[in-house]
From TrEMBL:
InterPro entries xref list: 6-PGluconate_DH-like_C_sf (IPR008927), 6PGD_dom2 (IPR013328), 6PGDH_NADP-bd (IPR006115), HIBADH-like_NADP-bd (IPR029154), HIBADH-related (IPR015815), NAD(P)-bd_dom_sf (IPR036291), Tartro_sem_red (IPR006398)
UniProt keyword NAD present: yes
Name of protein: 2-hydroxy-3-oxopropionate reductase
Domain 3-hydroxyisobutyrate dehydrogenase-like NAD-binding: 169-288
Positions of the 6-phosphogluconate dehydrogenase NADP-binding domain: 7-166
Single annotated GO MF: 2-hydroxy-3-oxopropionate reductase activity
Family the entry assigns: Belongs to the HIBADH-related family.
Gene3D superfamilies the record matches: N-(1-d-carboxylethyl)-l-norvaline Dehydrogenase, domain 2 (1.10.1040.10), NAD(P)-binding Rossmann-like Domain (3.40.50.720)
Keyword annotations of the record: NAD, Oxidoreductase
């Protein structure tokens, strides 16, 4: 642990937060964490982190506070109120929220934090669990240039592509666009898989050659095996993609952008949840196409 590195508090140790916080520990940072599940706290301690008993305890001595929780309500729950981050962090601390939430929630949080002398960046990520583990996440950031510059060394221990996209909320807007592209891409792949299989083609061979051409994508590279093996163990749950499709369709409506294909895929994601598949990986969009094509899944 280096004395001249900022002290970090980490709130939220889920599928993404646990490996990300561990990458900071490996990079030499002093990380104090808090989350609701005891086994996640045990994992942090085993990795060399310090476990706090509350949000207040985690953040009180921190120079930088990083949050990684599921959605806007959780960000609000951990940030506001007497036991929250804003009431207990030191003035001058930097709060980096890496959750994927509505752009408006990020704007409001930055405003409320400024009143306490706390600087804020919204810094949602793309790359899923694998990207978190390998520290190759894409990190889209909203906020002030000076705060981004201060945060950069920390973000570089977590990801590979780190870009300031504009003022507060901009990171969330770009993340919403990311989730739109990913969902539509997975849906297109899923439709191709069903079409190929029903046509009697060697699916593995077909996906390999498709991925070498213009139809190739990071999505297909990452999800090919999920499709081939029907392995839908979550790297990113349908429940969370459902939340994100709500964010992007709502935000697009607010700015007057039409998302016709995005709206259809949002409904397909919603239908998967209604079928009880919310806990599966988003590559399980394949199951929806199979059902529409007559399969009993």
């Amino acid at each position: 642990m280096s004395d001249n590195l900022p002290k970090i508090a980490w709130i939220g140790l889920g599928i993404m937060g646990s490996p990300m916080s561990e990458n900071l520990i490996k990079a030499g940072y002093d990380v104090t964490g808090f989350t609701l599940e005891q086994d996640k706290l045990d994992r942090l301690a085993a990795a060399g982190g310090t476990v706090a008993g509350s949000i207040a305890e985690a953040v009180q001595a921190a120079d930088v506070i990083i949050t990684m929780v599921p959605a806007s309500p959780q960000v609000e729950a951990i940030s506001y109120g007497p036991d929250g981050i804003l009431e207990n962090a030191r003035p001058g601390a930097l709060l980096i929220d890496m959750s994927s939430i509505t752009p408006q929630t990020s704007v409001d949080l930055a405003k409320a934090a400024a009143d306490k002398g706390i600087r804020v960046l919204d810094a949602p990520v793309s790359g899923g669990e694998a990207g978190a583990i390998e520290a190759v996440l894409s990190i889209m950031v909203g906020g002030e240039q000076a705060d981004f510059d201060a945060a950069r060394p920390i973000l570089e221990a977590l990801g590979k592509t780190i870009v300031l996209c504009g003022p507060h909320g901009s990171g969330q807007t770009v993340k919403a666009a990311n989730q739109l592209i990913v969902a539509v891409n997975i849906q297109a792949c899923a439709e191709a898989v069903v079409f190929l299989e029903k046509s009697g083609v060697d699916l593995k061979a077909a996906l390999d050659v498709l991925n070498g051409g213009l139809a190739g994508s990071t999505v297909l590279t990452r999800k090919k095996d999920n499709f081939l093996q029907r392995d839908f163990k979550p790297g990113f749950r349908i429940d969370l993609h459902h939340k994100d499709m709500g964010i992007v369709t709502d935000a697009a409506r607010n700015v007057g952008a039409a998302l016709p294909v995005g709206a259809v895929v949002a409904q397909l994601v919603a239908s998967l949840r209604a079928q009880g598949d919310g806990g599966l990986d988003h590559s399980a969009l394949l199951r929806a196409v199979e059902r529409l094509s007559g399969a009993q899944v």
